[in-house]
Amino acid sequence: MADGMDMASIEETFRRFAVHGDTKASGKEMNNKNWAKLCKDCKVIDGKGVTSTDVDIVFSKVKAKSARTITITEFHAAIAELAPKRFKGRSAEEALPALHALLAGAAPSNTGVTKAAAVGGVDRLTDASKYTGSHKERFDADGKGKGKTGRADTVVNSGYVGNYKGVGTYGDKVAK
């Protein structure tokens, strides 16, 4: 078995992956999606000895029958079962510390996550300086949207018709 410091870092890896992508997760249980992500990110899945199917089978084997998640003790049983498959030429006693070394201190990665691209037509659509007419009024001088004030007509109860430029000049005209 690995030393205490190594176990602490492996359990910290478990907690990091257990809460990844789920705001309500406590870090005490891990679902199958996060288990598969852990195995993929930590290079437990190598495509030859361990595949994603193997990872799913091991998850189903170690979890309780009606449960949808695994606990930390079931996690240790799962990695103990995957270790000999991942390191084929080694004995189970040698393979487990090698797998612990892969898992120690790992965190979920966001590589391959789709990013918003601003190319081609998207650039033109998001450039507020190119807007004309009434759409131009929806943005301030910096190109930031004004929100509701930019698209809602405000009612002025002055008694004049909307868009009348001479508001408040009636008294001046009558006095002349």
From TrEMBL:
InterPro entries given in the database record: EF-hand-dom_pair, TPP/p25
Localization of this protein: Cytoplasm, Cytoskeleton
Annotated coiled-coil segments of the chain: none
GO MF annotations, alphabetized: tubulin binding
GO CC terms of this entry: microtubule
A GO biological-process term: microtubule bundle formation
Protein family (similarity comment): Belongs to the TPPP family.
Protein name per its UniProtKB record: Tubulin polymerization-promoting protein family member 3
